Amino acid sequence: MLNYFIDNDLVRFVDEQPVDWEQAIRISCEMLVEKKFITDAYIEEIVDGVRKYGPYIVIIPGVAMPHSTDKSEGVLGTAVSFTKFPKKVYFEAGNEEKQAKLFFTLAAKDADAHMENIANLSEMLMTDGLVEKLEEIGSVEALREIIPYFGNA
Prior knowledge:
By secondary structure, the chain is of the alpha/beta class. It is built from 6 helices and 5 strands; from the N terminus they run H-E-H-H-E-E-E-E-H-H-H. A 5-stranded mixed β-sheet has the order 1-4-5-3-2. It starts with a helix and ends in a 7-residue tail after the last helix.
């Protein structure tokens, strides 16, 4: 899956730290908007979901998976983007369990694609040592360099 991000130009290493989780979500969605996978309406659904339900998108400490439902009219296509921020983004002040530097933003046109995205991403993130290595690197070149060490991740 790491190759997917590079091959589809859906990876971004951000130099400037977002001011809060909301700005981080918006930045993590930019590539998907630019490539016409989602609209701004989808971004608002994600932000509203976090406001309403809390930081459910932080799937493990350090990793967020911004997404809304597969029924969203703001989704135009199926894709996953990867955005890395320079420092932790806290969804709850000081809560180490609810922070992320790695954002994998999902968009899916239907329920099957939505579940496939989540399954593929979950499998990749379970690869031993991958999350830690992704937190260390800072460029697409560095991402390319680690791919051989993580097989099909």
